[in-house]
Amino acid sequence: MGEIRLMKGNEALAEAMIRVGCDAYFGYPITPQSEVLEYLSEQDPMSRTGMVILQAESEVAAINMVHGAAGCGKRVITTSSSPGISLMQEGISYMAAAEIPCVIANVIRGGPGLGTIQPSQSDYFQAVKGGGHGDYKLIVLAPSTVQEMVNHVKQGFELAEKYRTPVMLLADGAIGQMMEKVELFPQIPRKKDSELPQEWATTGRGDRKLRNFITSLNIQPEKMEEINLHLQEKYRTIEANEVQYEANNLEGAEYIFTGFGMGARICNKAAELGRAKGYKIGVIRPITLYPFPVAIYNDVASKVKGIFDVEMNAGQMVEDVKLAVSGKTRVEFYGRMGGMIPSPEEILENFEKIFIK
To answer: Class for domain 246-356, per CATH?
Structure first.
């Protein structure tokens, strides 16, 4: 068993960065994830592991620092919240095109615009549908607990390095701010220079005839199409092999509640209240928002009377749920926006209004 601590989500996220053997963190403070940089500064990971911590002058600078350091084969991470992630989109698109692995955490605040510092889930489209320019995707992990904030840092780097792609952790602000008991994994040593990926990283020529060269610029359309076809094939491989979800009480269920992150936690409680009133309710929680768990929704759709999607936004993941069920069952949505969090009782009441009447 690893070390057990009571930790705030953002602090657990930061501690996991140190323990996963990160070489560097480049970021800029923005609520509700400012504790990440504060915790890293207090912990002084340079003395613990040699990890570099740098507050960039902006989110644009931070993502380009990630681009450069990760292009050297280093384990690099950044974090921000909603408007800051928007500023990073150009750099993220560049890294997706150049196949540079890294991890990016978005602790979502209410929007649009500068919005509020309260928690939200309104960045689903931005994370799952690309966000920046061009035909690319990110692997997107959606933690629903502080423990998963820790686990997804480790898993995020494993997936990023396996597929040479940026990975995003999409957590609403409540998970970043809440405190829960977590089990921390043991320290993973930082890679030595001799262990860096020689086949693609810009580590110098070494014994190779030519130096590695990383770019996202390809003027010839034939070459750019070739790169795009390669990326799309990679995404199909990810979709076939990396889907993750959690399913509860599906056996005999007549209705399904679904949501991600904090919304899924509230759905579980709402379903419990509903079962106590005699409703047969199961819950599906996507853990990977991309790749989306299409098959489980499609399979359950023909067995239930309806699916009730709950999100802290105006309705975003619900579009993917509807696509997944292919018209086999009724899909309805309930959401709160601008930093408002629905209660389990509120969810059940609206489920009854829509489905039971």
So the answer is: alpha beta
Q: Where in the chain is the domain with CATH 3.40.50.970?
A: 3-202+231-239
Cis peptide upstream of residue 29 (ω within 30 degrees of 0): no
Residue 80: Cβ-neighbour burial (10 angstroms; 0-12, 13-18, 19+): buried
For residue 174, give the nearest of 104, 113, 117, 235 by alpha carbon: 117
Closest CA to 339 of 117, 166, 124: 117
Average pLDDT over residues 37-57: 96
pLDDT at residue number 206: 77
DSSP output for 48-102:
HT--EEEE-SSHHHHHHHHHHHHHTT--EEEEE-THHHHHTHHHHHHHHHHT--E
Q: Which two tokens stand for residue 126?
A: 């931005």
Entry pTM: 0.97
- How far CA 60 is from CA of 67, 83, 228, 272, in Å, comes to 11, 11, 25, 44
Q: What pLDDT is attached to residue 204? A: 86
- Bond into 32 cis (ω within 30): yes
CB-CB contact of 250 with 300 (8 Å): yes
Domain(s) labelled CATH 3.40.50.920 in the chain stretch across 246-356
Q: What mean pLDDT comes out for the span 281-300?
A: 98
Residues 6+ apart with CB under 8 A from 47: none
Pick the CATH number of 3-202+231-239 from 3.40.50.970, 3.40.50.620, 3.40.1190.10, 3.90.1010.10: 3.40.50.970
For residue 258, give the 3-state DSSP assignment: strand
pLDDT tens, position by position, 97-153 = 999 999 999 999 999 999 999 999 999 999 999 899 999 999 999 999 999 999 999
